[in-house]
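hey so i finally got around to running both of the ones u sent me last week. sorry it took forever, my laptop kept dying halfway thru and i had to restart like 3 times lol. anyway pasting them below in the order u listed, first the sequence line then the structure token line for each. didnt double check formatting much so if smth looks off just lmk and ill redo it

first one:
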Amino acid sequence: MARFFKYSLAVLTLLSCAALLGLYPYRAALLPAVVEPDQLKLQLAENLTLFMPENATGPFPTVLVFHGCGGQRESMVENLNSWLLPAGYAVLFVDSYGARGIQDWQPVCDGKQLWGNERAQDVYAALELAAAMPQVDAKRMAIMGFSHGGWAILDALAYGGEAGHGFTQSGRQTLRLVKAAITYYPYCGYPAQLRMHSQAPSDIPLLMLLGGQDSVTSHQQCLDSMDGLQLDHIQLVLYRNADHVFDHPSRMNTYQPALAADAHQKTLAFLRERLPSPQ
């Protein structure tokens, strides 16, 4: 019997070591270094890019955009500006990688660096920075995230502005500035905060656009998580034949212009209802 227990203990020790070794590549994501709120705002302030409608006078209703794990690509910037600016909305792009000096996007996409629940703090900080800009109407702000950026937004809502994974700052009052939240094909799996416990302000409306053939994130995980988010108004759009990044040209070559046009139309309708613009 003693030999059995000794053998069992050895096996358990080996399994524990194997588990720890398997988690080692994810250490930066599991145990992120805490950045003080003021320092994060300083870093983000240098990595915000604001575009405004031409031949118009602000302050403007503004959409804060959070890029996916592939980073803030020019194709996405150009695409969003092409249909948001003519509609009368200013667009503020939030470069989370630039703020952190991240040059290689692959570890983020692999889940080894900067999980979306850690990046939720960028949402709070960016909202505070945007509200202080004279060109931005602080009473008409929306947040929009793509893939990993959508994860960040959903978890920013789920944390309800309280401290979260890798950060201590509270953004509860700042989160109240959000008049609409929009996510395109977000990640909704583990370890997303929205799957665990939501403190989201119930009056923030959410539009979520999903791809039924998404090869990167699971649309079903998002559908299964929505009740737990406990928002009063959630509008779900599922494009059954769409893959990830169906809405603009990318290296994935999954762009579907007809679906993109429909998604943009639905997004604008959602924004116009909650962030009226002069257009």
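and the second one:
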Amino acid sequence: MSTPAGWEPLRKPTHRPGADAFRLSPFSRLARAHVLVAAGDALVTFALANSLFFDLDPNDARWKVFLYLALTMAPLALVAPFIGPVLDRSVGGRRWMIVAVNAGRAFVCLIMIDDLDGLLLFPEAFAVLAMGKAYAVSRSAVVPTVVRDDGELVEANSKLQLLSGLAVPLVAVPAGIAFAIAGSEGVMVLAVVAFAAATLAALRIPRTQVAEAPPTAAEAAELRGAGVRLAASAMGVVRGIVGFLTFLLLFDLRDGETWMLGLVLLLTGAGALLGSALAPALRRSFSEERMLTTLLAVAVVGGLVA
């Protein structure tokens, strides 16, 4: 229909009811990628448990584990302090880091399919672990940019942990089917698919800027404060307990039945679900410092008992 002002459509488009339900929020896009990453991590763990990685005697393999860990983590530890601030100040820098590490993990897992019984498995496995830590750091930096205010941070992180816990039992069935058909190689193929899907999902994470400018003198001093050092040290202790407990269980269960490993993974997911459900409620009643101190004590006692 022509008007003096020019051509106009016969009917003006109307907003379709329910259309907003198909629009993903920035946090939902991050959460979708995170679920796929958690699924990939669980699949890699399951595949490695039935490979040469845990078939060697722990005493004979200790020096190899230490050497490969040092060679894998040293470049990351040396370069990260310089690359991190640059990524934070660039628009979409952390998103591209998430995309890159998941694409890298998909590629390394693809190579690992033929090396599950060879010594190349060790550097490849630790490369996957190192890139997993890089993803965790980048994800933590992105979370504050996809929530509306600081008050939602605890709830957002709890939701991500909840989704991680749900991913473990969800992949247990396809992992079991793949293992029955093609062994650990079949499970590793699923891991490649999971990380590749996570890479594509990460492309939909909004391009945000974590830091617009270099830290000021006051901000740099705050980052070196006692509170941050305490939190970092506590997190290091927790990560150490989890890491040693993981290796203890996997080495101990290597001569047992496969269902035992599945039970451990299910209990791990259940613990993550419980912690994710309790965190927001505890945050409303206690300060972060009291939560940190109490839960750290519980984790240390649990580690000593184990």
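quick thing i noticed on the 2nd:
The longest strand covers residues 2-3.
anyway thats it, ttyl
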